[in-house]
Amino acid sequence: MSPLFRENIAYFIMKYIGKNTSLAGQLLKGCHVPDSMRLKYGKWLSPDNIPERFKGRGYKQVPLAPYKPEVYRQLRELLEPDISCLFAEDSVIQKLPETLIVSCEYDVLRDDALLYKKRLGDNGVKVSWFHVENGFHGVLNLFDAGLFTLPAAVELMDRIVDFVKNI
Fold first, then answer.
1. Is the C-alpha dihedral spanning 142, 121, 45, 96 positive or negative?
2. Within a 10 A sphere around the Cβ of 146, how many other Cβ atoms?
3. What integer is the mean pLDDT of 137-157?
4. What's 49's DSSP letter?
5. DSSP 98
6. pTM of the predicted model as reported, rounded to 2 decimal places
7. Is-contact 116 86, C-beta < 8 A?
8. Which end of the chain is more exposed for a tag (fewer CB within 10 A), N or C?
9. How confident is the model at residue 47 (pLDDT cuts 50, 70, 90)?
10. Residue 24, C-beta contacts closer than 8 angstroms, at least 6 positions apart
11. pLDDT at res. 4
12. CB 94 within 8 A of CB 101
């Protein structure tokens, strides 16, 4: 298992939607997001929504590059709610059931989880949240790995089981 970096995610999502991976750099810069969406969803995507305790250890805000319509035309499906749930309409989010959000300290998707948690909570969705301080993307794969079992994975599985039992 290797660490997951922003570049890996961009590459994998491009492969998933069947696009040329050469567009991954534009994706990472945010060139595919129209100004209208930046305005509409900016309050949810703001780094101001990331609690200060998560802004240490090398945190850096990545400013969006200017919108490029030609990149949007090629990557517009990345802004659909089934790929980017942060872009769902409020009316859809408000219908979601009680939700468990897990974030891991050493996960490139950690901040996305924190932003989504806030968006759900602000829309009246009951959210349970568990942050795995020593966790990384995929830690749950080491829940029952014999000698390689990690305590963080066991604790995460226990939290998930407790959440499901209490629904």
1. positive
2. 6
3. 92
4. G
5. -
6. 0.88
7. yes
8. C
9. confident
10. 7, 10, 11, 14
11. 79
12. no
Both tokens of 160, joined, read 């998930």
E-strand ranges in the chain read: 99-106, 127-136
Residue 6 and residue 9: Cα distance in Å, rounded? 5
Q: What are the tokens at 75? A: 């990557």
Give the number of other CB atoms < 10 A from CB of residue 93: 20
Say if CB 100 and CB 130 are below 8 A apart: yes
Question: What's the distance, CA 150 to chain centroid?
Answer: 23
- Three-state SS for 75? helix
Q: Which residues on adjacent β-strands are paired with residue 130?
A: 102
Position 33 scores a pLDDT of 95
The dihedral through the CA atoms of 138, 141, 143, 146 has a sign that is negative
At which residue do the structure tokens 């390689």 appear? 148
pLDDT in the model for residue 152: 94
